[in-house]
């Protein structure tokens, strides 16, 4: 399955829905910008967007909630090991209250993977981060970034955009 994402002002991004009524877009915002995301389509409708292969998924994306994207640059030769780690680990996150969806996105161009999780609320995500399950799931990670990170990973968070009625 493919996934596509782009950034811009929310007003600009919302116009995409008018042009492409056959696509189920997910719009989100934060203090810096907006983002549009969609999946299950073979066509990229974004002029300046990013294309991904969905490597692993659980749950269904919803139009409401809180999105966390871990953006992780991975060197080409280390990508199989990186993907293997995600595909073969039990996702403790799936059972957490407030968990909605998970996507591991492999970039079609570039080297920055996106680990996307959707939560019912930011509080649910913070509860996960402070849980014993989170500590257990991340205990194998060292304080020093792994060798397969050519650049520093970074996190972006969004609130799903709800149009005012």
Question: What are the main properties of this structure?
Answer:
8-stranded antiparallel barrel; Antibiotic biosynthesis monooxygenase; 36% strand; alpha+beta; globular; Alpha-Beta Plaits; 165 residues
Element layout with pairings:
Elements: E1 2-8, H1 10-19, E2 26-29, E3 34-39, E4 50-59, E5 66-73, H2 79-87, E6 99-107, E7 112-119, H3 122-129, H4 132-138, E8 154-160
Antiparallel strand pairs: 1-3, 1-4, 2-3, 2-8, 4-6, 5-7, 5-8, 6-7
What's the quick description here?
With 165 residues, the protein is an alpha+beta fold. The chain has helices spanning 10-19, 79-87, 122-129, 132-138; strands at 2-8, 26-29, 34-39, 50-59, 66-73, 99-107, 112-119, 154-160.
Report on the structure:
- By secondary structure, the protein is an alpha+beta fold.
- The chain has one domain (2-160): Alpha-Beta Plaits (2-Layer Sandwich), CATH 3.30.70.100.
- The chain is 21% helix and 36% strand.
- It has an 8-stranded antiparallel barrel.
- The chain starts with a strand and ends in a 5-residue tail after the last strand.
- Keywords: Monooxygenase, Oxidoreductase.
- It comes from Oceanobacillus chungangensis.
- Residues 66-155 form the ABM domain.
């Amino acid at each position: 399955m493919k996934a596509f994402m782009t950034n811009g002002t929310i007003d600009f991004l919302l116009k995409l829905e008018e042009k492409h009524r056959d696509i189920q877009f997910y719009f989100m915002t934060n203090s810096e910008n907006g983002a549009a995301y969609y999946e299950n389509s073979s066509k990229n409708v974004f002029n300046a967007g990013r294309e991904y292969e969905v490597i692993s998924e659980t749950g269904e994306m919803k139009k409401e909630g809180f999105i966390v994207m871990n953006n992780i640059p991975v060197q080409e030769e280390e990508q199989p090991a990186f993907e293997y780690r995600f595909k073969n680990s039990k996702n403790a996150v799936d059972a957490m209250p407030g968990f909605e969806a998970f996507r591991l996105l492999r970039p079609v161009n570039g080297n920055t993977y996106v680990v996307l999780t959707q939560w019912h609320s930011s509080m649910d995500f913070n509860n996960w981060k402070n849980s014993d399950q989170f500590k257990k799931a991340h205990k194998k990670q060292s304080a020093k970034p792994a060798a397969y990170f050519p650049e520093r990973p970074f996190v972006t968070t969004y609130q799903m955009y709800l149009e005012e009625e």
